[in-house]
Design a protein that fits this description.
heterotrimer; A mainly alpha; B mainly alpha; C mainly alpha; A: mainly alpha; 77% helix; B: mainly alpha; 0% strand
Amino acid sequence: MLRKLHKYANPNKFSLIIMPIKNVCLYTALPLIAIGLIIGLFFSPPDYQQGETVRIMYIHVSSAWISLFAYVLIFLLSVFYLIWKFPLFVLMAKEIPFVAIIFTLITLITGSLWGKPTWGTYWVWDARLTSFLILLFIYLGLIFIDKAFKYNVNGDLSFSYLSIIGAINIPIIKFSVDWWNTLHQPASVIRASGPSINIEMLIPLMIMSTGVLLLFFYLIFTNIQSAIAEKKILFLSSKD
Amino acid sequence: MNNLFYIILKKDFKDNLLSNKAWFTISFFLLCLIIFPLAFGSSQYLELNVSISAIWISTLFANLIALDHMYKEDYNDGTLLYYIVNKVPLVIVVYAKCLSHWLFSGLPIILIAPLCSYIFSGYSENNLNLFISLILATPIFTLIGSPIAALMLGSSLRGAALTFITLPFYLPIIIFGVMGTNINNSNINAEFYLLLAILSIGIIFFPMITVKILKSIIN
Amino acid sequence: MSELFLIFEMNGYGFFIWSAYGVWFVLLILLFLKVLLRKKEINRKLKYLIEKNDGFEE
């Protein structure tokens, strides 16, 4: 199995392989997001408790899932890099933080705009909000360590070890609403006893999340291609 | 094995004492602490909440500053390379480093903090809580800092980057520590148990990672 | 006209909902532009370097 995957580990070939996947991602993501926006904004019913403000959920929850998923992705790619030492893995992992940081920012800003009408404040120092803020700073640290080790062999190792140390934060974020009784509402979609959310709200949420996930993959793949090209430029310009 | 541990610990001790680094952390702590009454601008006692947060902030920054020279000198003068070439188990080196670092940057702060709290706020009933939560939190600071200090060994802009990257990892400890210090009814001590849990996981986990990092960075 | 206004007002919560969607849209567009500009810049540089090396790529 691994031996078969070996031939895809060549960055040049990988760059050619992800080309069609990337385009498919983009051209399915945009219609999905458009459909999700229209259903979410105009056709989905208002919540019986939160009223119309529940419409912010469709962008807030989808970006929150993406920003957590991105960290899991970085963590797995770093572990694979440390085990099998394919430089391609860490090259992929290094492109994720910048995209993920935007989704984390979106989550925090839309979350505080949702919090004002429902809780009465833009921000509380609550377990989930604080741990999400810490996630933002961990992403910043990952970007910073990548920049600090530019043109240094140890950079790849440092990046992957730091992402492994930072992974402790992920279960804390996911379960903070269940462990502490906070202002933030508990998880209503991904939980053991099935989703507790109304089906008419679940459909636009799912459409939206799939669309944003595909968009995220498109951005990551484009960045990976740029990074591979950057490596090529470094090689070509060091030759003369 | 034990013998080796004592030898390395003694060497670190001597290095720390001779190079005046021993007094650096604690004097930075006191200096940082003095800022708070000055910044409040009144000659009265500080509020209890303010004095607790002043002590925690000063502890945090003193530990961050001290972190920079945890492995730096030994890396620069080749002592770490010497250990690896002579097949000294790096686990022992890392544990000895952590212990000596804590003895010089954690222990003085723990001892002096209740006194500072009393001087600043004139209130001494929560001193036991402050003492216990500092005893639990400062070793965690040292343990979390050690892999990150090892990571930054090869980088050119070490000091600023190290502070920036380590700070987010210290934040949960600060949160639980301050919650533990603020307890009014001392029946429920959930924060202390949580800190203790983090400490007992961290004392295995972080030195293990540090050993891996040191090995891969030096080779 | 007033019906349209009612839809956009969202029972008085219009400001929060529309500003949340606005922030979302603006940040995503900025991210998109950043990624595409980086790609364009790098491709331009790569083309120049390959031409300089007589079309020899590998």
